[in-house]
Amino acid sequence: MKRLFGSVRARAALAATLVVAVALVAAGAVVLLTLRSNLTGQADSEADEAARSVATQIAQDVPYADLDLDEDHPVQVVDEDRRVLAVSEGLETISGTGVSGVTPTTGGTEGPDDDDGDDADDPRIGELGDVSWHGRGWATVDGERTEYRFARMEVTDPRDRTVLVHAGASLEAERDAVRTASTVMLIGLPALLAVVGSVTWLVTRRALRPVEGIRREMAEITASEDLSRRVPEPATHDEVARLARTTNETLSALETSVERQRRFVADASHELRSPIASLRTQLEVAAAHPELLDLDGAVEDTVRLQRLAADLLLLARLDAGERPVGARVDLAALAGEEAEGRAGVMVRADGPVEVTGSRGQLGRVLANLLDNAARHARAAVTVTVRREGDRAVLQVADDGDGVAVADRERIFERFVRLDEARSRDDGGAGLGLAIARDVAERHGGTLTVGDAPTGGALFELRLPLA
After folding, report:
1. Which residues share a beta bridge with 448?
2. Pairing state of beta strands 381-388 and 345-349?
3. Who has greater pLDDT, 70 or 453?
4. In 191-310, beta strands by DSSP E
5. Residue 189 Cα to chain centre, angstroms
6. Rounded to whole angstroms, how far apart are CA atoms 214 and 231?
7. Residue 154 gets which letter from DSSP?
8. Do residues 53 and 128 share a domain?
9. 169 in the same domain as 20
10. Is the pLDDT assigned to residue 428 strictly greater than 80?
């Protein structure tokens, strides 16, 4: 049971069924109340009409014994002393009117004018009152007990005697209608809820079928560790299709990241192998023949290892999402510090150009750009710092051979060296420009390469102004 209702399909079907059930019950209650109210109002109107008919006869001086009483409506006429003056034919019992008598009292059947024979031709007319009460009650007519809706009307006969006329209208039609409606609802509601639940289950299952395909494929990808596989994308434009596309995009990014990490580890191992092997060889030779120790070479290999380790550590921190600190850094002053002591490097700046970020990381970018320019320049390297709109622009130009258009993006990849024939000692590990671009992007900027006015390479760093 727990597993069943842990399903989205089951929960959706249950929720839809509950909502429809509440709506139908509320609607059914409103229908029944409205039906009962309308039928009660109709019964009140019938009772009013019957009472008014009898009251009109009394007001017109018709003797009580001669009143024309409707056989379909029980009628009871009483005076102010609660004495029964007239009842309809066949009325055996009555309740709900306040007077339970159904037998006219002695003299109750006499007409209003029988009290004074001299006034037999008196044209006086009594006065009709208003319906003063409606209520429910029971009456037995010809042996059949039924619920009625009674109306009470006051009338004054020509002798100024006030009597009350009670007339009822049967509520059997109301009871039948309400009973029929209730029966239909009790039978139809479960059937309708079953249909709603079934349809919701089927529709939800069909809608979620692609999700199950995505889940199954993801489980197989996880088991096989094959990140080149992709989940099926439905040919629709709904949320499931967007989920599939986003999942595939995530898989692509993950595949790229894993492949990049794999290449990174392989290249790092390859780069570390050479200086470590060289250093070990020198130490082994020195251990056997101390007089042959190449101290300068050992120091150079150690420094190279130290720089490579620092580069790898910085790349690892950048890949981990390390964010630069929010300090203000003057690029012009930083360029002057990095250029100090470097032969052939000239810095041009109109004034302070401040950006926000890590001074150490931005200094590393400048150092890497200057090292790269120094390796390829013939004689001079120029550093220019300026403002351009809301951006700080730093350019490093050399007078070397430049970078071919086809290689202008490849040089920013890790462990890439365009001149594979040059020695590793001279060319480095191929991480400097990759680090420089990563740091630039982490600072919300860009790093590109183009042609310098002197014919060499022009590296341009753009960062948001502080």
Report:
1. 460
2. parallel
3. 453
4. none
5. 31
6. 5
7. E
8. yes
9. yes
10. no
Total residues found in the chain within this entry: 466
* Nearest one of 152, 130, 132 to 75, comparing CA atoms: 152
Instruction: Report phi then psi at 451, rounded to 5.
Output: -100, 135
Report if residue 197 sits inside a domain.
no
Tokens 């289950």, residue located: 201
Beta bridge partners of 396: 383, 459
CA dihedral 416, 418, 419, 422 (to 10 degrees): -20
Q: What tokens were used for 20?
A: 């429809």
Is the same domain home to 26 and 133? yes
Beta strands in 35-173 (DSSP E): 75-79, 84-87, 91-95, 127-141, 144-156, 162-170
40 and 95 assigned to the same domain: yes
For residue 111 the two structure tokens come to 């007409």
Q: pLDDT-derived band of residue 174, with 50, 70 and 90 as boundaries?
A: confident
CB atoms within 10 A of CB 72: 12
Task: Quote the radius of gyration of the chain (alpha carbons, Å).
Answer: 52
CA dihedral over 100, 105, 110, 116, signed as positive or negative: negative
Tell me the pTM: 0.50
* Number of domains forming the structure of the chain: 3
Domain residues for 302? 239-319
- Of the candidates 342, 353, 408, 427, the one whose C-alpha atom is nearest the C-alpha of residue 379 is 342
Q: Distance between CA atoms of 68 and 49, rounded to whole angstroms?
A: 13
Q: Are residues 45 and 165 in the same domain?
A: yes
165 compared with 113, residue with greater pLDDT: 165
> In angstroms, rounded to a whole number, what is the distance separating the alpha carbons of residues 137 and 147?
6
Q: Which of 315, 312, 318, 317 is nearest to 272 (CA)?
A: 312
Measured distance CA(407)–CA(117) in Å, rounded:
135
Examine residue 206 and state whether it is found in any structural domain, yes or no: no
| Most confident region among 48-57, 113-122, 254-263, 319-328 by mean pLDDT | 48-57
Whole-number pLDDT of residue 201: 84
pLDDT band at 28 (very low <50, low <70, confident <90, very high): confident
144 and 38 share a domain? yes
**Within a domain: 78:** yes
The predicted pLDDT at position 415 comes to 76
Distance between CA atoms of residues 339 and 397, nearest Å: 13
Angle (nearest 5°) at CA 434 between 428 and 436: 100
Q: In this structure, are 144 and 283 located in the same domain?
A: no
Domain membership of residue 228 (yes or no) is no
Q: What CATH number is attached to the domain comprising 106?
A: 3.30.450
